[in-house]
Sequence to fold (482 residues):
Amino acid sequence: MKLWQKIFLSTLALMVSITALSSVLLLRSTRDALWQREQQRAITQQQYMAGILKAGILNQRLRLGVVLLQEDQTRETAIQTLEQQATDDYLAGLMLLDQEEKAVWNQLPSGVVPPTAEDDSLTQCQLQAGDTAGEWYLVCSMPLTLESGEYRLVAAYSVGDLQRDLNLQALRSVGLSLGISLLAAVLLLLLVRRLLRPLGALRENARSIAGGNYDQRLDIRSQDELADLAQDMNALAQAVQERVEQLEQVAEERRVFVGNLAHEMKTPLTSIMGYADLLYLPKTVSDPQRVEYSGIILEEAKRLRSLSAKLLELLTVGSVNLTFEPTPLDQVVGEVAVSLEPLLAQTQLTLSCSCPPLSIAMDRELFKSLLYNLLDNARKASPTGGRLSFTAQAEGEKAVLKIRDWGQGIPPEELEKICQPFYMVDKSRSRKAGGAGLGLALCQAIVVAHQGTMEFWSQEGEGTQVTLTFPLCQEVDGHEDA
Fold:
């Protein structure tokens, strides 16, 4: 059973139950009030009849000139008085009972019997049905003292019209309740379907997302729980869409990475195999040619070794558990500068370093690889006889490192791509220098591992500057603390 059906049926059942209970209570209250009024009317009529009987006894006593009438005289006088009382549509009949509950005079309608006396001192009334269908009588019994004898005056009052009116009123009430319930059911059905309409939109939205339409959104303008649920569904769809896009981007990057890797490895392998064939084939190869071919094979082998080393380092940055320790930055910069001296001497480049005493939490060897790669890239981009600079300074709780060259620079449209694996701005120059386009991708991974940032500024013909930012280690009581 669907939710709207459950809400509709349960609410309808509750509404019908309340309406029926209210109708029953109202009918019962109305019936009790009418019967109480009718009973009071009957008792008043009965008291009037009792007064007539007593007045007839008194007149008979005065006429005979006695103080008290005899029992037979009392009964005879009472019967004569009752016979003179004509019945009408309301007073249907009378009956007089003596102390032994024997009928002295009886004109009650057929089928009507005196009510059983529970207390002889009280007037009692009882509703009885007559022999004829639809006839109802209110039979009242009143204790009565005539002279020295105890009697009971019983009167039957016709209340069939009242009973029929009550039955008709009950039928009307039931019909009215059914009509109201039917109308309420229709209105309730329309209201429930309207209020729960957003649930259908939520269901369709969920199905659309499950079908791959991740940009589907809901627009429910209200202030209820369904609007909150719609917002949660939109947030969920947004999160799923972003996650899927990330996965698609990762898959695309992996595809490009594998393709570029295969291409980069294929080129040196082709050269190695070609020149190796020239040396292997049984033909005369001069010594200068043999040296040339062997040199080419050696350079391509070095390029493969560099490619594999960079690739391995790039893959292990995010998977190996690194050890970060507070390390003086000037010591690490000095070690990197010493390692670069032979390469800088080949192109007559000069490196100026300005590094105050700063401490950074780092993996020492990995951080050296970062600086080495950035300075080596600056070396490759600089003309012979040029210069490079390395500066570091503290800015607040951050250490800011800047590596600058005055080389050919990078076009603005290339700046956003230079950290992509295998991407090279000048592919011919990079390959000649033994590059594979993995250096800056490795640098980016190392910077992220050290909770830092890396930004590039470059102008064609003026050079390039790399700005690195890392958290500083604070010194406490003469000791450095990461």
Q: What stands out?
A: The first helix runs from residue 3 to 64.
